[in-house]
Amino acid sequence: MIENPFVPLTFIAGPAILTNACAILQNSATMRYTMAVTQWREFRAAIAAGDHSLSGLYSDADAALILAERRIRLLLRGLNLVYLAVGLFAAAALLGLAGAVLAASQAAHQVPVWLVVGGGASGVLALAAGTAMFIGESRCARSLLELQLRHAQATREPLIRAYATVE
What we know:
Elements: H1 6-49, H2 61-104, H3 113-166
Helix pairs in contact: 1-2, 1-3, 2-3
């Protein structure tokens, strides 16, 4: 394995690259989480004030609130899974590096390859599960937009008909 320098490099670079990809995914998910929490707080404030502004924006205000809460839960679960994936990828990269150094020095104790591969594979599973959570959150956001669109179409149609009868 030492004769080919790309083998130990793969065990180090692969998890390191995946760690960077997770960091980018974390950043975008954190921004989405911040916006989702802000939206949820605005919904809760409107309900507490009793001003019925949600009914003026969404065809079903209760469904909009449920979707907003679900978005936050999905984003939190997804972020936790991505954090786990980052930790697993970092551990796999460090174990790969330690294994390459120990193998090069022909030390008596070596890092088992299955440990490095298992850590990386577990990271991939955590990343896939986190991505599934983010897909679910995107569906909630799309459903919120559809509720707004339905409301906009329902309130605009009478105006369009009234305008058509004037002409």
